[in-house]
Amino acid sequence: KAGVTQTPRYLIKTRGQQVTLSCSPISGHRSVSWYQQTPGQGLQFLFEYFSETQRNKGNFPGRFSGRQFSNSRSEMNVSTLELGDSALYLCASSQDRGVNEKLFFGSGTQLSVL
Amino acid sequence: QKEVEQDPGPLSVPEGAIVSLNCTYSNSAFQYFMWYRQYSRKGPELLMYTYSSGNKEDGRFTAQVDKSSKYISLFIRDSQPSDSATYLCAMRKESGGYNKLIFGAGTRLAVHP
Question: Fewer C-beta neighbours within 10 Å, C or N terminus of chain A?
Answer without folding.
Answer: N
